[in-house]
């Protein structure tokens, strides 16, 4: 049946309009690239996000798969003493499987590093069975010694409860959740003391429900060792000041008594910047609140096992802020690294595409699938303000610039 010409033209116009609208909906919503509304620009961290520049691999030497050198059953493999590490609850099995599948697909099916799962209670048989099915690598299931997890004797429970009420009024998340405080303390000062990790030097922390987007074709643990790196991050953010009001003052007390521990090439500027978010610095009593987002960490446990860090952690633990405030392991790790480690030993794993809700690290690389290049968040536009990378680049630098990236 033939339609009159005006009807055909109208149908064609409707189709074109529909396609145009569809295209608009699928457009990259990155605040960095879109000419953008005022609201978006207002929150953009950079004139141009460095993740928009093409990212290949970090510099050689890089250790790759060759023949059977990383086979899971090769007892003489090129693997070093390192493990993937996950503190996780039985009820998070499905979310953990998601993280495992992404990391196995993009990296570990090539290198077959063991997984170590840690819990404050025994893992179920189902948890063990299902996680082992996700990998050819060896899986270990460990329980935390009670004395590493329980709330220490010097914490006053009444004061803790009152403090949690106060924190809640300040909109501090998880204020009343004791286990969250315990988890932050354990990640700050105990994970590397677990007997099951005694023979390992390097770890890659993996949380349930995170995503990995990019194929990584070199052994990242060997990268850390060969390039003399202590710690690697993907995302760095501002923290909630009321959760850490006295963390910096306590740190300063410790530093005043231990000046010799400060690294020569430290990241004090990054830790104390007050130009970008002056109100954060003010509320956190001198700390910028910038921290490496510790749900992703690739690190050398020798740093956490050093006498300097042990003394610092002990000082913080006695001060009580893991329970009277809600000190996170992220700011604690970051401050320690920023003060006591040479900042050239801290590496931005720009090439590892990563997401933990609601933030991403999404590089511009043909190796990446499933994230939008340069997009920091899929949440509200104001979340872009939480990005602390510009501060890191300002005080420490961007090692990927110039010769390294392409
Ligand atoms: N075994 C165990 N793991 C926990 C507990 N609380 C948190 N975790 C783990 O600690 C990590 C951080 O917790 P999560 O709830 O993701 O905190 P968020 O990312 O800060 O919202 C995740 O790997 C959790 O599985 C706990 O009480 N027991
Ligand atoms: Mg999490």
Short recap of the structure:
With 406 residues, this protein is an alpha/beta fold. The chain has 16 helices and twelve strands.
Write up this protein:
By secondary structure, this protein is of the alpha/beta class. It has a domain at 53-79 and 150-404: Alpha-Beta Complex (Spore Coat Polysaccharide Biosynthesis Protein SpsA, Chain A). 38% of the residues lie in helices and 10% in strands. It is built from 16 helices and twelve strands. The chain has helices at 5-26, 38-43, 93-111, 125-132, 146-149, 157-169, 178-189, 220-226, 247-257, 268-272, 278-283, 301-304, 307-319, 321-324, 329-340, 389-395; strands at residues 82-87, 115-119, 139-143, 202-205, 211-212, 231-233, 236-237, 291-292, 297-300, 346-348, 354-356, 359-361. The chain has a seven-stranded mixed beta sheet. Strand 2 (115-119), helix 4 and strand 3 (139-143) form a beta-alpha-beta unit. The longest helix is centred in the first third of the chain and has 22 residues, at 5-26. It is globular and about 85 Å long. The protein starts with a helix and ends in an 11-residue tail after the last helix. The relative contact order is 0.16. Residues 26-38 have low confidence and may be disordered. The site of magnesium ion has 3 residues, from loops.
């Amino acid at each position: 049946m033939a339609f009159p010409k005006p009807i055909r033209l109208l149908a064609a116009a409707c189709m074109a309009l529909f396609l145009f609208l569809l295209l608009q909906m699928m457009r990259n919503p990155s605040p960095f690239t879109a000419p953008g509304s005022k609201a978006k620009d207002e929150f953009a961290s950079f004139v141009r996000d460095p993740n928009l520049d093409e990212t290949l691999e970090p510099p050689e030497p890089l250790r790759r798969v060759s023949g059977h050198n990383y086979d899971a059953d090769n007892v003489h493999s090129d693997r070093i003493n390192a493990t993937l590490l996950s503190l996780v609850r039985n009820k998070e099995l499905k979310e953990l499987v998601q993280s495992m599948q992404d990391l196995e697909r993009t990296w570990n099916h090539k290198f077959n590093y063991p997984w170590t799962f840690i819990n404050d209670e025994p893992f179920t048989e189902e948890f063990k069975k299902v996680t082992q099915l996700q990998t050819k690598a060896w899986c270990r299931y460990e329980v935390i010694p009670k004395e590493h997890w329980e709330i220490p004797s010097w914490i006053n429970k009444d004061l803790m409860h009152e403090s949690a009420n106060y924190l809640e009024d300040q909109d501090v998340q998880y204020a009343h959740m004791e286990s969250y405080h315990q988890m932050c303390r354990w990640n700050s000062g105990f994970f590397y003391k677990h007997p099951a990790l005694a023979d390992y030097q390097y770890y890659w922390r993996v949380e349930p429900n995170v995503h990995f987007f990019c194929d990584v074709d070199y052994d990242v643990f060997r990268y850390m060792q060969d390039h003399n790196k202590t710690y690697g991050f993907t995302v760095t953010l501002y923290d909630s000041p009321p959760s850490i009001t006295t963390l910096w003052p306590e740190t300063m007390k410790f530093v005043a008594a231990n000046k010799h521990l400060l690294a020569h090439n430290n990241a004090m500027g990054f830790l104390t910047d007050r130009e970008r978010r002056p109100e954060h610095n003010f509320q956190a009593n001198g700390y910028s609140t910038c921290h490496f987002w510790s749900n992703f960490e690739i690190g050398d446990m020798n740093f956490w096992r050093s006498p300097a860090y042990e003394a610092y952690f002990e000082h913080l633990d006695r001060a009580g802020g893991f329970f009277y405030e809600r000190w996170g392991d992220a700011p604690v790790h970051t401050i320690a690294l920023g003060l006591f480690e040479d900042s050239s030993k801290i590496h931005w794993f720009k090439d590892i595409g990563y997401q933990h809700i609601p933030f991403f690290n999404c590089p511009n690389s043909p190796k990446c699938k499933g994230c939008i290049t340069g997009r920091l968040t899929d949440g509200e536009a104001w979340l872009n303000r939480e990005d602390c990378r510009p501060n890191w680049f300002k005080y420490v630098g961007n090692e990927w610039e110039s010769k390294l990236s392409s």
